[in-house]
Amino acid sequence: MPVPPPSESPDSIAARLDAVRRTIAEAAAAAGRDAGSVTLVAVSKTHGAAAVAEALAAGQRVFGENRVQEARAKWPDLRAGRPDIELHLIGPLQTNKVKDAVALFDVIETVDRDRLAEALAAEMARSGRRPRCLVEVNTGEEPQKAGIAPADVDAFVAACRERHNLPVTGLMCIPPADEEPAMHFALLADLARRNGLAEISMGMSGDYPTAIRFGATHVRVGTAIFGVRPPPG
Ligand SMILES: *Cc1c(COP(=O)(O)O)cnc(C)c1O
Question: What pLDDT shows up at residue 11?
Answer without folding.
Answer: 86
